[in-house]
Amino acid sequence: MRKTIITLISILALSSMGHSLYAQEEASSDPPFHIQDYELGRGLRFQGKGGAYFMKIRSYVQSTAEFRTTSNWDDMESRFRVRRARLDIEGKLAKEKFSYRIRTDFAVPNNEDGDDLYSGTLLDAFITYHLNKNLKFTFGQRSTMTDNREMRISSDALQFVERSRVTSAFAAVRDFGLFIEGRYQVGSWWVKPGAMIASGEGQNNFRNYGGLKYGGRIDFLPFGLFRSMGEYSEVDHARQLTPKLIFGVAYSYNVGISSRRGRKGGDLVYLGSDQQTETLPDYGKLGADFMFKYQGWTVLGEFNWAYARVNSPEIFYRVRSNGTTANLRSEDGLNNATIVDYIAGRMMVGRGYNIQAGYLFKAGYSIDGRFTYLDPDNNSFLNNEQFYNRDKYYTLGFSKFLFKDAAKVQLSMTYVNALEGTKGSDGEAHGADAEMMGRLMFQVSF
């Protein structure tokens, strides 16, 4: 944690120094920069001389309490934790047409085994070049445009305490690469196309296994742009004056994936007959989604389909978590056909649907409902009895917004349909046909 804090302080010092040098060149008696303004939830904003340079520091904290039990009411699990503690630094160089962002989360360990708890981990780190007001190029680590729509929305602007299980099942979340985004007005419509080339290994994984990940998204806004950036929050705080709708499709293809869905590269590695050559499956994902808002109402719908392509004749070995190898054919007794099933069974393949809706009252209260359905392939990690093997999720949420998303309290209850053989967190089958989860969250954004 100390290293992370020192790094952030150094960044701030260098930024201030840069602004100071710029100001000294212009006029030594002028202040190098001034605080533009501060508003709860929007952070502390600095502006350089003449408005050419801008920087913002913002953070938010989410504290949660969770409990889980089964329909047998024979056991109760609870957890209290800091869900997120994030710090953002972002800025813009208007004349040079560049912007940047660095985002860290101090509630996430930065090592693989999690022993270094709360030391912080890097989330976003990218630079964007704005060719013009309609086209920009981003290079670095950030969220990917090929995930479902909910992943286009920041975690401090969600309708519920947690994202849906569709996000959990299929989203890669972040990746490192080149991202191209545009927006164009065609009559009364707006069209937002995007394309990306990324490592396909997820965040903070700078070794590339297999090939690259290619993808794109295109969104349509038939009724014009959302008011007050409403496209990037789930609750309709802006109370859209006219109906607003965005819908789109996204597709990605990861050539040589080494994890379940492209989130943590290096977890699942396979080798050829020489026990040296990495021979990995490909992973494709298609998504379609929409969001509608009007006068406090919000409706969000998402669909994802993911599949794997396994060239089994070329695959002979799997790499264990300790680095040793096992022969899939002589030790595990598999053949070309069953190797396909085995590898697909370790990946997130299948379909997922999510539909959620809610209404925000003018007094700042909201009531929301969500239904999520997971439909795994016969061979898929979505059948894993401990972590998945649940197909239907019904969630009812209640929120009180003290200052929009800047300060809020959210409560949700989820009923989960548990399939036969479902196991609890202890790895033992609990024998119940349903589970219930409750979550409570307090959030403050600075």
Automatic annotation (TrEMBL):
This is OprO/OprP family phosphate-selective porin. Residues 1-23 form the signal peptide. Pfam families: Porin_O_P (PF07396). Keywords: Signal. The lineage of its organism: Bacteria, Pseudomonadati, Bacteroidota, Cytophagia, Cytophagales. InterPro entries: Porin_dom_sf, Porin_O/P.
